[in-house]
Structure formats: C-alpha cells, structure tokens
Write the structure tokens for this entry.
Amino acid sequence: MQELYNKLKTFDLNYAIKLEETDRQFIALKSLVEKNNNKKEVLALVIANSIICYQLSGTWENYWEEFSLYFSYRKITYQNIVFELWEFIKQSKNNKRFVDTKIKRLEKVKLALDLFEWREEYFYQNMTELRDLLAKTMKQKITDKTIVFAVKMFGYVARHVYDFVSYPKDIFIPIDSRLTNLFEKYKWDYIDINKFYIDLSEKLDISLLHLDWIVWINYEELIK
C-alpha cells in the first residue's frame, strides 16, 4: 500500500473537492437544483435514484444527465417520488436493465424517505446516520456499493442546497473495477479490500468518498 500512498500523498481535500466539481454527475445535479423549485424533495429524489443506479445500459454520467434533464421542471413531492422514478426508468435510455427489480427497490426505499422527510439538513450534517438508515431499510450491508453511492450522490446534491459538508471518514468507498484493480496491484499483505482503503484514507487524511474521485481521475497513472 505504501507505493500507492506515495503516488497520492501530494493530494489533499481541497484538490478532491475541486475534482468533484468537474464530475459530470455533480454538474448534472447542480443543474437540477437550479431548475427545480422543490429543493428538499430533490434531495430525497436523488437518494432514491441512487438506490436503483446499478447495471446501467449507458454510462453513469449519461444516466445522471438524463435524470437531471427529465426532472428539471417536474413537480416533486415525497408522495410521488416512487411513482415519478418508476415512470422515468420505464422510458430511460440509460437504465433499461432489471426494471422490475428496481421498481421493488424503490418501493422499499420509500420507508427510508418517510423518516428522511423534514430532516434533510440533519442527515446532511450526519451522513453516517443516513447510510445506516438506508442499509437497514434496504436490508443491505453498510459497505454495499449502492448504499455508499447513495450517500455520495446525496452529498453532491446537498452542496447545492446547503453549505459544504465533507463526507465522514467512516463511510466506505464504493468498490468498483478500478478500485479492485488497484487493490490487486498494491495490496501487498492485505486481504480485505475495505481495510486496505480505510488505511489508505487514514494515511492520506482524506475521507474515502472524497478519495473516490481522486482515484477515478488519476486511475490510468496509478495503475501503471
């Protein structure tokens, strides 16, 4: 792990934040917040959409831009979020797979949104509690990719509604193929991939969810 740390040690939180602001998903959510008057409802909408953001038929960036465009001027309420997302994915170009399963997941996440309503800023200040709520409701592990990704995207969109809050250090990184490849290259005597990235995060003093985009952008150099 030391070799990977040496390649990343010049980066800090400010660098991570600047990188995140260039993410097309971040930009898409900024546009959504600017165009939709239902700001707090949009926060819940983004959480629900993140829960069904897997096995896409297009790129993640294209999907979130499609999502942003579709919901930019639609009236969103807590009562119609599941229905509106259901209608959206039925015609989405970038999220065509496992639609029936995703609709069932939307029905389940509605239970979490019922507890989220009117507490949007509280959960932004306490994102670990949001992670735990989603994991409990969806009956998943707190390390599962869709759970931590939902927190990440919530953090993205909440920045456009409230003042900046950094991601907590105890929320795991969404493990994807790039992170897996880096783990295999640099793991040395590590067995557990989560432990590997937790230790790397602590050594760099950068929260895992902020480290995520640094690794994504610099992947080609890091994997050499």
About this structure: The domain at 23-158 is CATH 1.10.340.30 (Endonuclease III; domain 1).
